[in-house]
Amino acid sequence: MKHIKNKYDLVVVGGGHAGIEASLIAHKRGIKTILVSMDKNSVGRTSCNPAVGGLAKGQMVKEVDVLGGIMGFFADLSTLQSKTLNKSKGRSVWSPRSQIDKNLYEKIAQEYIKEKNLDVFEGEVVSLDVKNNSVSGVFLKDGSKIVCSSVILTCGTFLNGLIHIGSKQINAGRYGEKRAEGITENLNSLGLKSGRLKTGTPPRIKRSSVDWKMGDAGFGDKIPSPLSYRTENFKPKDEPCFSFRTNENTHDIIMNNLSSSAMYSGKNMATGPRYCPSIEDKVYKFNQNPSHVLQLEPEWSKSEQIYVNGFSTSLEEKIQLNSLKTVKGLENVEFIRPGYAIEYDFFYPSQLKNTLESKAVSGLFMAGQINGTSGYEEASSQGIMAGINASCFILKEDPLVLKRNDAYIGVLVDDLILKDTNEPYRMFTSRAEYRLQLRSSNADQRLLEISKKYKLLNEKTLDKLSEKIEKTLDVVNYLNENNINPEAINKRLNKLKEKEIGEPTRMANILKRPGVLIADLGVEVLELKNNLSKHMKNEILFEAETIIKYSGYINRQKEEIDKIKIYENMIIPDNFDYNKIKSLSNESREKFINIKPQTVGQAQRINGIRPSDISILLVYLKRPFHVK
Question: 46: buried, middle or exposed (CB in 10 Å: 19+, 13-18, 0-12)?
Fold first, then answer.
């Protein structure tokens, strides 16, 4: 048997967004790490939509950034258009999104990995070497072995991947890339339960075959905001995306040919993402809608290859083409590549601890689509957490666990390990009950101390963010402590159709009015140092303004969080014997045994668990003999 020359502490399997974050953060923390990819040239590939961020996802990218991750920085360097979504709603759900140059993003990622001297090996991991329920290495397809004490699996859609285009089936992990075989079977033999999920991607069409005059151009923000706190002088391109609309003719062709879709042909296919439906699902399930929006997005700067966002499909290629040709402006459309659906293996994430380590195999971590999620940002978030916690495992440090009120990443992990995964999981702002506190604008305030504790950022970035947080609080204090006179503000209030004041009033009280901004106060609230960029100064003022406007709501949420802390800190022993609790229903007992909640707070959030079950559990937790 051949061995790789050096022994490693950590092997990361897969070079997608999860794998990159996991391997880089572990490497940064001094862990001897190797990233194993089936194709070194595909590391960092954005295989589906050409964008990073979006609703709730933008918040996660900012959180990953503060935790030492790199996705936001790569995106900033390759941005074609930057836009903040949800601006018509409250600031807590404003979400940054960047349209990116996919080719440039991939190139930047690979160059960065090389620059950081992270070892990358081209090969295929087919099984783990597990001794006494602990990882001791991985076996490659060529028979060689890499010795290690921890493994992070980030296999994306490659585990027994199967592509569907109508009746055509292709064994592949992505279009044109071979699938991975062996890992699923190996983990099954170790007692881990797997399932099948499905996701899809739309066709890529030729730019030159589109009549762009028939589409509505959409541009980015006039004052764009970077996704990474490390980015300075953010001046991205602003290449437009164009929206087109389907019509009745489009829908008729799809409805008349549903049987040509792999999903509607009677095949027993895996479940796909509810909130990213195929065009077949849209037309069939939402037939009351006369049309659906198609967003045509460039895949790189001025690319001939265009991504048809909103037209994910597994129809026969000819049907895909004919239906698109009914859309005004796409009458002469030509394909570069058809859309397709892909089925792949995943492992039920309830088999993981809240550190993303396997409950069954010590030292085995999983991140990304292997855990049943969908999306670059969800993968990146899991990757950074798996990388940090694998390094903690190796260094024998306390792991990092983010709570639901700490970050969207905390919500993501908590949902994964406690909820049933019957479909690909995608993050939304509605999943976060404390979203008022989890704003994209305050990720630094929420997570910087954690970053300091685990040494996740360099000194320059730590100093920069520390100063930003300090100055933000200085502005808040200034506004809370200083008055503004009627003659200085009433004219502006009148113009804003706000009630005038009759006496000197605290600036913060004026600012709590929905229509009033700091700029309306007409005063220089704070002299900010010249070493701060214009964008950083704008961020400071915006966040200070937000803190004041949301203060009442935020304080109420903090009170709620304080009330539930007692349950979050109440540990359930690993060997707690639920079978001895005879007063539990069989269903509740089975859920506790299968999921093995680590705290009473987690137990409360398991689907189907009732308050009475928790009351019973609390009684028996006080009895030490209820352990195996």
Answer: buried
Which DSSP string corresponds to 557-584? Answer: HHHHHHHHHHHHT-BPPTTB-GGG-TTS
Cβ atoms within 10 Å of 423's Cβ, excluding its own = 16
Which percentage of the chain shows pLDDT scores above 90?
75
- Asked if 456 and 68 count as a contact pair (C-beta separation under 8 A), the reply is yes
Q: Which residues pair with 98 in a beta bridge?
A: 52, 82
pLDDT of residue 274: 63
DSSP state of 500: P
The predicted-structure confidence for 424-480, as pLDDT tens digits, reads as follows 999 999 999 999 999 999 999 999 999 999 999 999 999 999 999 999 999 999 999
Pairing relationship of beta strands 119-122 and 33-37 according to DSSP bridges = parallel
The torsion angles phi and psi of 452, rounded to 5 degrees, stand at: -65, -45
Q: Return the amino acid letter for 138.
A: V
Categorize the per-residue pLDDT at 233 as very low, low, confident or very high, splitting at 50, 70 and 90. Answer: confident
Residue 174's identity, in one-letter code, is R
What does the alpha-carbon distance between residue 353 and residue 598 come to, in Å, rounded to a whole number?
8
Contact between residue 341 and residue 264 where contact means Cβ atoms under 8 Å apart: no
Listing from the earlier edge strand, what are the strands of the sheet with 194-201?
Answer: 168-171, 162-165, 340-347, 194-201
Q: What is the pLDDT of residues 154-165, one digit of tens each?
A: 999 999 999 999
Report the pLDDT value the prediction gives residue 1, as an integer from 0 to 100. 39
Q: Record the pTM.
A: 0.92
The rounded distance, in Å, linking the Cα atoms of 102 and 207 is 16
Q: What is the C-alpha to C-alpha distance for residues 596 and 607, in angstroms, rounded to an integer?
A: 13
Q: In a 3-state reduction of DSSP, which class is residue 357?
A: strand
Burial zone of 329 (CB within 10 Å; 0-12 exposed, 13-18 middle, 19+ buried): middle
Window from 15-29, 431-445, 527-541, 566-580 with minimum mean pLDDT: 527-541
Q: How far apart are CA 579 and CA 581, in angstroms?
A: 5
**Maximum CA extent, the chain:** 86
The phi-psi region of residue 132 (left if phi > 0; otherwise alpha if psi is between -120 and 50; otherwise beta) is: left
**Size of the chain in residues:** 628
CA distance 110 to 116: 10
End-to-end CA distance of the chain: 41
Closest Cα partner for 356 from 44, 21, 110, 3? 21
Distance CA 454, CA 388 (A): 8
Picking from 282, 300, 273, the residue whose alpha carbon sits closest to that of residue 246 is 282
Which residue type sits at 136? S
Q: How far is CA 435 from the centre of its chain?
A: 15
Instruction: Enumerate domains of the chain plus CATH numbers.
Output: 10-200+344-454 (3.50.50.60), 204-343 (2.40.30.260), 459-556 (1.10.10.1800), 578-621 (1.10.150.570)
pLDDT band at 627 (very low <50, low <70, confident <90, very high): low
**Sign of the torsion angle spanned by Cα atoms 12, 14, 19, 25:** positive
> Could you give the CA distance from residue 173 to residue 160 in angstroms, rounded to a whole number?
7
Chain mean position to CA 72: 11
Secondary structure of 124-139 as H, E, C letters: CEEEEEEECCEEEEEE
